[in-house]
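S.,

Sequence below, as promised.
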Amino acid sequence: MNADARTSHAGTPALALHDVKKNFGQTAIIRGLNLTVHPGERHAVIGPNGAGKSTMFHLVSGRIPVSSGSIQLHGRELTGMPPYEINRLGLSRSFQITNIFHNLSVYENLRCAVLWSQGHGYAFWKRLSRLADVAERAEEVLERLGLQRRRNTPAGLLTYAEQRALEIGITIAGGAKVILLDEPTAGMSRHETDRVVELIRTVSEGRTLLMVEHDMSVVFGLADRISVLVYGEVIASDTPQRIRENPRVQEAYLGAVMEAHA
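The prediction came back faster than expected:
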């Protein structure tokens, strides 16, 4: 558990969704979602395919607008904000599909991610090689990822697991205090999964993590709390042990999967 998560949950949540709804035409995807993520907490969201997990991430990050309801980051209303403004407030996310610059090197990908967070923006008259603060931060993240030997390798030539690790690095490079990871271990072997889980554990220290993940060993190995999303609503939100024992959760989603990890 993060050190911050061991403190009292009293006070302003890091992230709070209140009665959030999202309709696509006449189809309701998110049907009154309520979710609270405490500062410093590693919080996993699980649920069957089509439950609305990725849609929830799109709403929180501003990629799509809510139909109604409220989303707050450290008490500040996010509803209606574009993604870049939400990112500047300290929230960053990854995607199910790897989202990197394939033709740029590993280091260049990280340097691009750092630019805005250091207040430089993009200006053609600035020589990136002279921005010492950007270079220092990019090197720091590169070391944390364990990708130093791949520093100058085009990102498109990395293994799948390395690309996912790089995307996690891009997510944290800007210094975001709240990070959203969407199925970070999808498609990985057990060995690759174990490595990425340790990476997530390391980079989420001192941050708030909201994660969508289907691999129950990852969920139960990382999460301080778990919320179960079914048909666009949270049906339970509790500690891993209590989620494991919750009859409603087993009936609605986990069943035999939960027994396998008991």
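The chain has one domain: 4-260.

Coffee later?
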